[in-house]
Design a protein that fits this description.
Length: 145
């Protein structure tokens, strides 16, 4: 896809406000702020979805907006791969969208299970491998070519 084609597509940014137990995402906290480079640019086709759950569709207007705009394909990236990217991609598939996940534009962190640390690389690769059965998973370079 060319850069000019991408620039004419709507850009939707989701911002998580509250996750139970996570003080980082409390409203009006530093953790809930979007990085200034992600803020919508005036006179563009961008807007922000505020959410309270990892799934960007759950209790938001995202699905309704996408239907109104007749959008069928989504490009998904962000963090964390094992939470927001995974749950949003799965819900997108269940709603009938055709998601593309940009693997190298996603990030995650190491997790612990049964006293074993699973490296961020292994978490990332495992979740992207699973999503690859549901969605198209590509690098940014592949997507842009």
């Amino acid at each position: 896809m060319s850069i000019s084609a991408i620039s004419s597509c709507p850009c939707i940014t989701s911002s998580i406000l509250i996750i139970n137990r996570e003080l980082l995402f409390q409203p009006d906290s530093h953790g809930a702020e979007l990085h200034h480079q992600l803020l919508p640019i005036a006179d563009t086709n961008e807007f922000i979805i505020h959410k309270s759950y990892p799934n960007s569709f759950l209790q938001t207007t995202l699905h309704e907006y996408l239907q109104q705009q007749k959008i069928e394909q989504l490009v998904i990236c962000g963090m964390m791969t094992h939470m927001c990217v995974d749950s949003t991609t799965r819900q997108a598939v269940e709603f009938g969208y055709q998601p593309i996940v940009i693997a190298d534009a996603c990030a995650t962190l190491s997790l612990e299970f049964n006293s074993t640390i699973i490296s961020a690389t292994n978490v990332q690769n495992s979740f992207l491998a699973a999503l690859n059965y549901l969605a198209t998973v590509q690098s940014a370079e592949q997507f842009l070519s």
